[in-house]
Specification:
Endonuclease, Chain A, 28 helices, about 15% strand, alpha+beta, two-stranded parallel sheet
Length: about 775
């Protein structure tokens, strides 16, 4: 892989698309159409599937058989869900074979995926319908192509998987009753793009799909993909779907990682670099990610040119889920700020030519922007590309990707036709995000003679708009994602490299036996997470549900034992202990509820302490880091007082404090006394407050209101007193006095291993602070 950033002079003026360099093939298409958003794509795909006669290949990063392609009522008499539809099609067409190839996903995505795609109770299997998974990739890589090929005569390529939470209309209404997942739960607006083409393009993509099927291990390589079947007579292009362009050449570009004896294929990376280098006026990107180092460097080089092009990147405001925000989101923010800083040093003119935008939707919760999942870019009015590749390192070299690209070509009449179509497709995307018409976008582009100026002209507060965005660079996440190599790799990453990057050599020790206990605890937490995801558990653990459950328990024999046991179990599952105390106060009253809560909290604390003592200090230090040493010493030195303060303040979850205290040098007597002293005021005030709050709601009177006011005042005074008690003293020794005190202090005894170790640990903590 060359590290050289190409310039405009390096490219051939004859045409940007060059087979063997930035595309696999240049193939002819009779028709081409851009499908914006899944409502259009899914509807068109369903119509095309009904016309299938010979073969269907579906390749995807995620495929869910429960996906409803056309929500609402369909008039074709076939099942709405994808899996049932495919079964019905092979039953109806005796010569039809359907091959579905899904990425064999990492367990990281297990909670988001359909586990039994090929199996449905009560549904007979059909030998002509094949569901398979693709695991033939380097470690950490994925099959990311989203391709559907029908009879080798019609193909779909883009960013849309046939899976959950993708369907949406171009309106992206914040509340659309048809936007529901398979569990009938609503999801946020979603934007993506797919392309469809026929002719030789579809035939070539059929060959690509069969080759991928064979490489995944499900067919003989010599015959399955190199022999193309005869084309059926029927045309699968859906009736009434008008193409955007006819009679044109389309470039098919790929990414394939080097694997086993096969070399890597990096056509999409070269296509991006060639387009960036060849742009004269503007580059338009609409992409889920922007984390590729090589692309950002190439864009930065063009922006630093005196007459460089404008660059607009449309991207989601936040990444999907906490993991993507902490990794890909942090990498994007780093690259964005690196570009902005470099351009600001070049002057205002250079900085004004680059901007990142997010599509704002009024009425969306928390003012968030549209979830942009598309992978589209345009170079001037001369080139337009749509596919599955993100602007990330892994899409350039690590995952399997596929894209279709059209370029101005042919005679003058054909060139003008394609140029007009490219401008129209780009303007359709801009019009959707700006909440205006395509004509408005075209007029603004002509009048302003610039991409950013046209966007600024069309922006109107209070409606859909493209808002300039500066992703926040969080220092903690930036430090965590110290290198793209792990989270967004360009090549296979071995486990040893991950360890080298994130685990200090001094911390690599043999695993003690007690770590098995931590493993068992981790498995228990995973089981709890699965139960939270797939059972009504998350609906049970709330204040109203717990109150209803406690009231039913009140009518049972052995109520004290049941309630105390509930405190113990819930405490070990990390259910907030304050919620349980409040429930006791509401249901059993301030006296009985207080006694139940005190006994339950005490027993739960005792068991947590025993667990921490069994695991041991070293095991917890290996898991939580050296900072546990400080807490452990505080517990040991100040015993009862330290424990009482920790219980009074919400420093850490109740269960975590129990386990850490058990692993420390704190004695059991001091632990129990400190817990009782620290928890008793909170228990008393909480049960009294919750009981009188419930009484004031059920039976309002002057007495209940006065008691409620008094308890509230007591809570506020306790909080104020703690704040004053724990506030750092204003008078502290001067730096000079502190240095003098340290000089006069005796050195640590090197013969005392314990004191030396404590001093060393202090040094580690100081460096980490």
């Amino acid at each position: 892989m060359s590290d050289k950033i190409p310039t405009a002079q390096d490219r051939s003026p004859a045409g940007l698309l060059q087979p063997g360099r930035n595309c696999w093939r240049l193939a002819h298409a009779d028709r081409f159409k851009l499908l914006i958003d899944a409502a259009d794509y899914f509807r068109t795909l369903r119509l095309a599937l009904l016309n299938a006669r010979h073969s269907v290949y579906i390749l995807g990063w995620d495929i869910d058989s429960r996906t409803v392609l056309v929500p609402g009522v369909t008039d074709d008499g076939l099942p709405p869900q994808l899996g049932d539809l495919l079964h019905a099609l092979v039953e109806r067409q005796p010569d039809l074979h359907i091959h579905v190839l899904n990425w064999d996903y990492a367990m990281l995505y297990a909670l988001e995926r359909e586990w039994m795609m090929a199996r449905k109770p009560g549904r007979a299997r059909n030998k002509r319908l094949h569901f398979r998974t693709d695991a033939r990739h380097p470690v950490g890589a994925s099959h990311h192509q989203k391709i559907v090929v029908i009879d080798d005569r019609l193909a779909f390529v883009g960013g849309l998987d046939l899976t959950r939470c993708r369907w949406d209309t171009p309106e992206h209404l914040p509340e659309n009753p048809l936007r529901r997942d398979p569990d009938d739960k609503p999801y946020a607006p979603f934007h993506d793009v797919q392309a469809m083409a026929d002719g030789d393009v579809a035939r070539a993509l059929g060959e690509l799909a069969r080759r991928r099927w064979a490489l995944a291990g499900y067919a003989e390589r010599r015959t399955s993909w190199s022999t193309v079947p005869a084309l059926p007579a029927d045309d699968p292009w859906p009736h009434g779907v008008e193409p955007d362009l006819c009679d044109l050449q389309i470039g098919i570009s790929r990414t394939e990682p080097a694997y086993e004896d096969r070399p890597g294929v990096f056509e999409i990376r070269e296509l991006y670099l060639d387009a960036i280098a060849g742009a004269r006026h503007h580059l338009f990107f609409e992409n889920q990610y922007f984390t590729s180092n090589v692309l950002s460097e190439a864009i930065g080089a063009r922006l630093r040119e005196p007459q460089g092009p404008e660059v607009a990147v449309i991207s989601p405001q936040t990444q999907s889920g906490w993991l993507e925000q902490a990794t890909m989101g942090a990498l994007r923010a780093r690259i964005h700020h690196r570009l902005k800083t470099a351009l600001e040093n070049q002057g205002e003119h250079a900085a004004a030519r680059y901007q990142m935008y997010c599509p704002h939707l009024p009425g969306l919760e928390d003012g968030c922007c549209l979830n942009v999942h598309s992978k589209v870019f345009a170079m001037d009015d001369r080139l337009f590309s749509v596919g599955s590749a993100n602007m990330s390192n892994r899409s350039m070299a690590f995952d399997t990707e596929c894209s279709l690209t059209i370029e101005v070509q042919g005679d003058a009449a054909k060139e003008e036709q394609i140029r007009t179509a490219i401008a129209l497709m780009r303007n359709r995307l801009l019009a959707e995000h700006l909440g205006c018409s395509v004509q408005d976008v075209r007029a603004a582009m002509q009048q302003e003679h610039g991409l950013h100026a046209a966007i600024a002209r069309l922006r109107q507060a209070g409606r859909r708009e493209l808002r300039p965005m500066d992703p926040r660079l969080i220092p903690e996440l930036d430090a965590l994602t110290q290198d793209n190599a792990v989270f967004d790799p360009e090549r296979p990453v071995s486990p040893d490299e991950i360890v080298d990057a994130y685990v200090p050599r001094s911390a690599r020790k043999p695993v003690p036996r007690r770590m098995i206990g931590l493993g068992v605890l981790a498995v228990a937490l995973v089981i709890f997470a699965l139960a939270w995801r797939f059972t009504p558990l998350r609906e049970w653990i709330n204040l109203s549900a717990l109150i209803a459950l406690a009231r039913s328990v009140d009518q049972m024999p052995f109520t004290p034992a049941i309630v105390i046991a509930a405190f113990v179990v819930a405490g070990m599952l990390m259910v907030p202990i304050t919620v349980l105390i409040a429930v006791a106060g509401v249901v059993f009253g301030p006296v009985i509820g207080g006694l139940y809560a005190t006994a339950g909290v005490g027993l739960s604390a005792l068991l947590g302490f025993g667990l921490g003592h069994w695991l041991g200090h070293d095991a917890l230090r290996d898991m939580l880091g050296p900072r546990i040493n400080k807490l452990s010493r505080r517990f040991a030195q100040r015993g009862i007082a330290a424990m009482a303060v920790v219980r009074l303040l919400p420093i850490a979850p109740f269960t975590v404090v129990n386990v850490v205290a058990g692993a420390s040098h704190l004695g059991l007597r001091d632990y129990l006394l400190g817990t009782l002293i620290g928890m008793a005021p909170g228990i008393v005030l909480t049960v009294v407050f919750s009981h009188n709050l419930a009484e004031a709601i059920r039976h309002p009177s002057v007495q209940t209101v006065l008691i409620l006011v008094g308890v509230t005042a007591a809570l506020m005074l306790m909080a104020f007193g703690l704040q004053k008690l724990l506030k750092p003293r204003a008078a502290r020794p001067s730096n000079t006095s502190a240095r003098a005190a340290r000089r006069s202090a005796p050195p640590p005894s090197t013969s005392d291993d314990g004191i030396a170790r404590v001093n060393a640990e202090h040094g580690v903590e100081a460096r980490q602070a």
